[in-house]
Every structure is written in structure tokens, then in C-alpha cells.
Amino acid sequence: MIRAVIFDLDGTLIQTEVLKAESYARAMFTLTAGHVPKEQTMGVFDRFVGLSRQEVVHGLATHFRSELQAALGESNMATLGEALIEKRLEIYHGILDNEELLSRHFCSNTLGLFHRLGQEGKTRVLATMSHLPEARKVTTAMGIFGDFDLICTRDDVENGKPAPDIYLKVQEHFGLKTEEFLVIEDSVNGIKAAQNAGMPVFAVTNAITRKSVHDCKLLPSEFVVDDLTQLEARVIAFITNGSLQKE
């Protein structure tokens, strides 16, 4: 029996994966004096979705190392990463301060599921690789910050997704069996983290994650939701029946 539902944040409750990708792309374009077009960064960003900030920065800085070195006159990877983090956070925090912009990226269908689960008395948890200040700002803008029974962020665990640490921390907090949790994720790394923790998981896809989620073949098709209008019905059916019919 499912007693608690764990939601990822970025790309699941709000399409901040798109906004994060844009902030990294703009930062890379600026730091390389235009030698890395924004489309080029966006084109490789999907492989880093679901990872922590440090891991994303390391991946992008490694991928575009030669362009960053040429533009910044610096070869030390740590220094290149720090420059990328600083510029990207400057851009991203400006985005997070724009509540009107954020509101256009709310995932209304996932939010509908979130509110229905609350009405039905299910425990609702946030487990995100965002850091707490960002998670608090985003969920406050969404009006749901105080509705979670527990919030776990990258600040609470040693290893980020796809390691299972964040989900096992949630399990430890509530003292339930892993099969009593259900995870809602959007990325391959998030799916792997939930599966590594032994928890059932639904994937909600978006423009950035859809191809990689399907290509990884980690989930049966009935647990991959491309049309988010079907999300609530599928999740409630799984919670009620313990299984889903194959499509």
C-alpha cells in the first residue's frame, strides 16, 4: 500500500529544468564571449538533468573546457567551474525573482495530483537536487512550501542522484518500507535514484527529458507519462490497485 508520495521539483512540479538550462546556456555564452552559442549548451544539457549543481557545472565545464580556457585564459578546472557557477547563479536568481515568469512554468497537472493527494490524506514529500534556498523560493511562489510533510534537498545528503541517498533519507525519516513510497520524477538520474532505493516510480517527461527517459528503457511504458493530463488518473489507479494495465 502506498502511504507517501515523493515529488521531485525541477521538471516535475515546475519546469525549472527549462529555466536552469537557459541560465547555464546564457552563462556559457557570456563567459566564452559568444563562442558557445546557447543552442549548443541546450543541446547537451539533457545528459545532466537531475544531477546536483556541482555535477552539472563539472559536466558542462568539462564538455566546453577548450572554449572556456580560450576565453578566460585559465586552465584550472576548479577555477573554470567557479566562474561558471557564479555567472549562472547571477542569471538564475534573477529568473527566480520573477514570480510572473515562474508562474508560467508551473506544472498544473502535477500540482493537481499534489493537491488531490493532500485531500486524501497521503503524505507528500519533496526530494530535490536543488539547494534549500532555491527550493523554498520556488515552492513558496507556487504556494505549496508549507504543504509538504518533509522537504529534502541536496543540502541533506552526501551523494546526489542517481545515488539513492535522498530517497533512503526520506524512508529513514518516516520508517516505512520502500514499497510504501511512490516517486514522481522527470529525469533518468531521478528514475535511477528511486529504483536504487527500491521505490516504484512514475516519470513525467518534458521537452528536455523525454528522449532520454524513453531511450533508457528503465520503466515500462505505463509508468512513463508524456501526456500529463493522464498523470493523476494513472497515479491514483496505481495507488488504489497496486498495479497498472499495460498500454
TrEMBL record:
It comes from the Bacteria. One of its GO terms (molecular function) is sugar-phosphatase activity. It holds the Pfam family Hydrolase. This is Haloacid dehalogenase superfamily, subfamily IA, variant 3 with third motif having DD or ED. It comes from Robiginitalea myxolifaciens.
